[in-house]
Specification:
The strands form 3 sheets. A 7-stranded mixed beta sheet has the order 3-4-5-2-1-8-9. It has a two-stranded antiparallel ribbon with strand order 6-7. The chain is elongated and about 90 Å long. It has 396 residues and is an alpha+beta fold. The relative contact order is 0.06. A hairpin with a 4-residue loop joins strand 3 and strand 4. It is 52% helix and 11% strand. The chain has 21 helices and 11 strands.
Length: 396
């Protein structure tokens, strides 16, 4: 028994009252059986898309993908994708079918899906439809392709990354034929957009324990990251273990996984966002720097790396070397600096460029140099962060 949301029930009922089948399908069914709250609910139906538009003419509808049979219906403020049962044609680009044929048979639709746990359909009146034993695989924590695994990955190579992501996030074992097809089909990923691969890798890395999958499929991850030179197993193992132990923060886990490897090249290769790249690169630099439990030194590093990145750098060091007394001391010093609003950035100085111009006639590029000099003095304890004291220091 699945607890179907109130806004979904009218859609199922309207389609059935109009003489068609309708089932909730895919991830919402899988997650419900796993005791999770689905993020969205998709419906499959025997009604063709034009008929769906007609049936729901009094609702707000969006012709999301009529070519592939999908109409979005807004029910009680919630967008719900309704897709006609379909049979996929040939996949010429390892990603999308050349054409689709609509069907009146639910099992035709389920047979084209990627994994057994995603090939289940549920209707409150008719119960569960599970022709590929997805519920049993859920119980046994096994990820298995529907039908021939090689064919599934040849049709859509992104399914390789999805399989690895599901195995990591659900903590499932990959069924032997599925695992073999992944390893033999890794070259197919070159046909997939880098942005799609990085999206799947991001979700995988944020799993509770991604270590086992990262280790078992090392060659695939190195390939998608564009790392050509050999990486010793010991290095990869240490990095993946640290990434798995660390706080689930994407830039931090990327930095740890790629620690000692060409981080910038890998992140560029997979076309991660500039924000993720910058944060991961900054954390990587910080991991390579020795941090001493000295307030002035820590302030300089807070200034260089930023407070947020500094927190993740400390967490990364803990993941790499284990928690240590020195790192705990450093965390306490950072906490003290923040609690007392102590100055470690130019923006925290009790003086600004306008003050320098008005009081000392300093302008142009010299303003930046002067502020850097004052910040150094405040951090080192040579001058108080007080406007008059700072002006006097510059006058000298």
């Amino acid at each position: 028994m699945i607890d179907v949301p109130e806004y979904i029930l009218p859609i199922l009922n309207i389609l059935e009252d109009s003489g068609f089948e309708a089932y909730t399908v895919g991830g919402c069914v899988r997650d419900s059986f796993l005791g999770k709250v689905p993020s969205d609910w998709d419906i499959a139906t025997s009604a063709c898309p034009e008929k769906v538009l007609e049936i729901f003419s009094e609702f707000t509808t969006i012709p999301t993908g009529l070519k592939h049979g999908t109409v979005t219906v807004i029910s009680d403020g919630n967008p719900v994708e309704i897709t006609t049962y379909r049979i996929d044609g040939e996949y010429a680009d390892c990603r999308h079918p050349e054409k689709v044929t609509f069907s009146a048979n639910l099992e035709d639709d389920l047979s084209r899906r990627d994994f057994t746990v995603n090939a289940m359909a549920y209707n409150p009146k008719n119960g569960l439809k599970d022709p590929y034993n997805g519920q049993l695989d859920l119980k046994n924590k096994v990820l298995r392709c529907v039908g021939d695994a090689r064919l599934r990955f040849n049709e859509d190579a992104l399914r390789i990354m999805r399989a690895l992501r599901f195995a990591a996030t659900l903590d499932f074992e990959l069924e032997v034929h599925t695992a073999e097809a992944i390893k033999n089909g890794a070259h197919l990923l070159q046909n997939i957009a880098k942005e799609r691969i990085s999206a799947e890798l991001s979700k995988l890395l944020l799993a509770e324990k991604p270590e086992n999958i990262l280790l078992a499929y090392k060659n695939i991850f190195l390939e998608v990251l564009g790392i050509k030179h050999p990486v010793p197993d010991s290095v990869w193992e240490e990095n993946c273990k640290a990434a798995s132990l660390a706080t689930p923060h994407l830039p931090l886990r990327l930095a740890l996984m790629l620690n000692g490897l060409p981080v910038s090249d890998a992140l560029r290769h997979l076309k991660f966002s500039n924000a993720v790249k910058h944060a991961a690169e900054t954390i990587t630099k910080g991991l390579a720097v020795e941090i001493l439990p000295d307030k002035a030194s820590i302030k300089k590093q807070l200034r260089e790396f930023g407070a947020e990145n500094m927190d993740y750098i400390i967490k990364g060091k803990c993941a790499l070397s284990g928690d240590s007394e020195i790192l705990r001391d450093i965390e306490e010093i950072i906490s003290d600096i923040k609690a007392n609003s102590e100055c470690y950035m130019i923006s925290q100085l009790d003086i600004n460029g306008q003050d320098l111009l008005e009081h000392l006639g300093i302008n142009g590029p010299e303003i930046g140099n002067a502020l850097e000099t004052l910040l150094d003095a405040v951090i080192s304890g040579k001058c108080e962060n007080q406007k008059n004291a700072l002006l006097e220091l510059l006058k000298k």
